[in-house]
Give the backbone structure.
Amino acid sequence: MLTQGVLFGVGASFLLAPTNSLAAQWFDKYRGLATGISIAGSSIGGLWFTVATQSIMDQIGPEWALRILGILTLVVTGTMNMFYFQRVPPKPRKRIIELSVTKRLTFWLIALELFAAYAGYWALVFYIGTTAKQIGGTLQDGSHLLLVLNAGTVIGRVITGYIADKFGSINTLAVSLILTVAIEVPLWMTAKSLAPLYVLCTLYGLISSTFISLNPVIVAVHFKDIPLSSVLGMTNMFSGLGGLSGSLSQGAIFETYDKRMNFTNTIIFSGTFILLSAIATLVLRAHVIKKGSDRRFFQRV
């Protein structure tokens, strides 16, 4: 399992950064919408894989289920990768990591925003099934809640991409992160039945995952002089660190404090880090406005 986890993480990383950067390279006016549509594909895949994996495992067992899904993934991604190419051919580079970006405050603010967002985001995804079971639901209810959440992200990433093109990607991201905290904490903390959890998963899916689809747009706008895939790869490193440390911390908090009671401490942990991500985004917004010629507070950023 450990080997599978490591290899899957490495392989997925090779696919993630280049793929996420492509739409942002080819579009300008509708960059947010194009990126939102392309990344919404991962949500559709998540919906299908969730149902397909369980169905195949029930019929032929987990070993062959993983083999079949692995072969299918290889065929689909391998075929599609043959049709990918960058809008501008990359210039020869002497180094893989563009250290020059680390001298820019913009980079570190994006890195902090991503680290905090990934640290807090996955709590609901990991523990919604356990929450459903605690209040009288079944494991099937937990699976249905995850399907609702994934379906919400499909719509949410497209809609927020369109909104970002109208009002600015940083503005849209900041508002969505603040709304995520305002929705997650009270609804999850006070849920006593499945109905509030379905409402929570619907709204969480629609609003929360914007940081995944909007960050390639933000990087494309503010790092035009550096290969986009390189900067995305470096910022994605902080995404991975946030996801790893956040998941481990949430697990420790749940086992220590919440396992026999409720999810209060886990919810507070998640909400705090998403709020930190929102604050980092607001600081990024102020920094971008300060650097520009237009110092108006209300503007498209």
Observations:
- The chain has a mean pLDDT of 87.
